[in-house]
Amino acid sequence: MQRALARFAALVSLCAAGACGTLPGFGDDTTEVTVWLMRNSASDDFVQRFKHDFEKEHENVALDVRIQDWTGIGAKIDSALAGGTAPDVIEVGNTQVPQYAASGGLLDMTLESIRDWGSDAWLPGLAQPGNVDGMQYGIPWYAANRVVIYNKDLFGAAGITRPPKDRAEWLADTAKLNSGGNQGIYLAGQDWYTLAGFVWDEGGELARPDTGDWKGTLDSPAALRGMEFYRQLQALGNGPKNADEETPPQAGVFAKGHVAQMIAVPGAATAIEKANPALAGRLGYFPIPGPTEAKPGAVFTGGSDLIIPRRTRHRAQAVQVVAALAGEKWQTDLAATMNYVPNKSSLAPAVEGRPGTAAMARGAAQGRATPNSPQWPAVEAENPIKPYMTAVLNGADPKRAAKAASDRITSLLFP
């Protein structure tokens, strides 16, 4: 202990003589905290407002916010984490957190999440993928999810005066709308994110942990019930059975004026109205209905989490940045600015005046994320779920097709 005190005293003397910088935690030196945010996640105006306010409240901190492109970001973050050159705070896709956590390069923020940030109230679709092996590495920032966009004129012509409250009513209304040259719904055969919600509503999963590994479970009775509902709904329109919602882009199909409903994020309305200005003001939104009217249906939640590299040299300041971005003040601001869903349902009133975003927020309370495996990106890259869906829609035996898809998912999750 005496030798340690002597070394500390010598170091203080040396620094006082100008031989080294100010000791950590002392003096007036400004700490620069580097933050990576993804392009178009937040407006330039929001970023500047946040930067100005944060630096005003934290006088010795300067934020260096660097905008990143989604293309190639995975390899860039992997390289930064491995080399110890990562920024202090990084925005990542919510479902990407497990793959970065697998590297061992992320800071565990479980204590702050429980003690200070009210993690029990976070949207599950953002919080769950950020939690790996019981440790919270990803902090929810914002969410977005699919809703039903509908043509008010076609609903009115069919005598439907309000959105359906449950699945049975949804099927009945859609069948009524599917007549006279109009499609009740445009639902592409390979819209697997929408299928996932139906599977979750039935109590099924795309994959489950299995003795330390993961196993595809599309062939479970619950998952098969979800696929059967998808089949019934998809048949009430002319969506292609062998393509996803981008082939062709479903907004363009809807814009022609003969589709009553489509499932998409509310922002798709912008593309619809651009393609057909006559539909401006004629679009409505409602959450995807659930099995009962007690709550909306489950939906896949997209969006972003915030992570901190474990090797950050500015841990305290980085945590302060995350706390601010994930806190009520800036969550409310971001939601209102960007039409996002904030990270807690209690903050949903911030978007109540925006019909599309408000519908999205109601659905987000039932949001889920893809299986929390670091290997899940390999499943999405090949995506055996899509050909499985096409096979069933074309009349293949559902259980046999689901078993083949599940086996392939299992092999991809355990390379």
Kindly describe this structure.
The protein is α/β, with parallel strands linked by helices and about 425 residues long. The protein has 18 helices and 13 strands. It has helices at about 1-15, 45-55, 75-85, 95-100, 110-115, 125-130, 150-155, 165-175, 190-200, 220-235, 250-255, 270-275, 315-325, 330-340, 355-365, 375-380, 385-395, 400-415, and strands at about 30-40, 60-70, 90-95, 130, 135, 140-145, 145-150, 205-210, 215, 260-265, 285, 300-305, 365-370. The strands form 4 sheets. Strands 1, 2, 3, 6, 12 and 13 form a 6-stranded mixed beta sheet that branches. The N and C termini lie far apart (about 50 Å).
What features would you highlight for this structure?
6-stranded mixed beta sheet; 13 strands; alpha/beta; globular; 3-stranded antiparallel beta sheet; 18 helices; 42% helix; disordered N terminus; 415 residues
Task: Report the C-alpha radius of gyration, rounded.
Answer: 24 Å
The rounded distance between the terminal residues' Cα atoms is: 51 Å
Strand content: 15-25%
Secondary structure class reads alpha/beta
Question: Helices, strands, pairings?
Answer:
Blueprint: H1 2-16, E1 31-38, H2 44-57, E2 61-68, H3 73-83, E3 89-93, H4 97-101, H5 110-115, H6 124-130, E4 131-132, E5 135-136, E6 139-145, E7 147-151, H7 152-157, H8 167-177, H9 192-201, E8 207-210, E9 213-216, H10 221-234, H11 250-254, E10 261-264, H12 268-275, E11 283-286, E12 299-307, H13 315-325, H14 328-338, H15 355-364, E13 367-368, H16 376-382, H17 385-393, H18 398-413
Parallel strand pairs: 1-2, 1-3, 12-13
Antiparallel strand pairs: 3-12, 4-5, 6-12, 7-10, 7-11, 8-9
